[in-house]
Amino acid sequence: MDERNGLGVPRSLQEACDPRRLALLVYDMQVGVMDQISERDRVISTAAAVVDAARAAGVRTFFLRHITLPVELMGVSQLRMWRGWQRTDTSAGVVSPFPPDAAQTQIVPELRPTERDAVLDKITMSAFEGTWLDIALRDCGITTVAVVGAAMEIGIEPTVRHAADLGYIPVVVTDACGAGNVEAAERSLAALRFAGDSLLATSEEFRAVLAAR
Fold this sequence. Notes:
Order of helices and strands: EEHEHHEHEHEHEHEH
Low-confidence stretches: none
Oligomer: single chain
Structural class: alpha/beta
Radius of gyration: 17 Å
Number of helices: 8
Shape: globular
Distance between the termini: 15 Å
C-alpha cells in the first residue's frame, strides 16, 4: 500500500478490495436489456459467479434498474433520448419501454436479488445521478465499487467515471460486463484504461482476491 499524508493509497486490486469497504454494483441486468446484449448467456453466467463470490465474502450488493416514466411525465432530455433509441422521427412516436412493473424491466432470473441486496431504480445512465446510492455507500464506509452488468458503452462507463469523480475507486469486472455494440464497448474500456483512475480486472482475478480475503 502506498502512503502519503496518513492515507493508504491502493496500488493493486487486492489492496483496493477489502470486502468491508467494497460494494458490488450490478448494472441494468434486466430482461429487456440483456436481450439486446452480445453474448448474453455468457455475460449473465459470469456476472452470476461474481455476485455469488461477493455474497460469500460479505460484500454489499446493489442492483440497478433502468426504468422509464410514462411519456406524459417525460421531459425534453428523456423524450430526446428515447426518440433516438427508438428511431422515431418525432417525440409523438416515443413509448415508455421500461415501466417499473413490466416483465422486461425485471432483473434476469439468474441474478434475482435476495433480501440482503438492494434494488435501485434510476432514469439516468450514471447510477449516482439523482439516486440515493452515494448516500448509502458513504454511510457504510465504502471506498471501492466493483461493477458488472450491461451495457459497458451506455451506462457502465458513465457510472464508473462518476464514481471516480465522487472519490471512489472503481473496479470494472471486464468479462462480466456486456455490450450492445462491441466496438463501442472496446472504446469505453480503452478510455477508462487510459484515464487511469479505474482498476480493470477479469472475473477470475476479482473472485480470487475476494477468496483470499
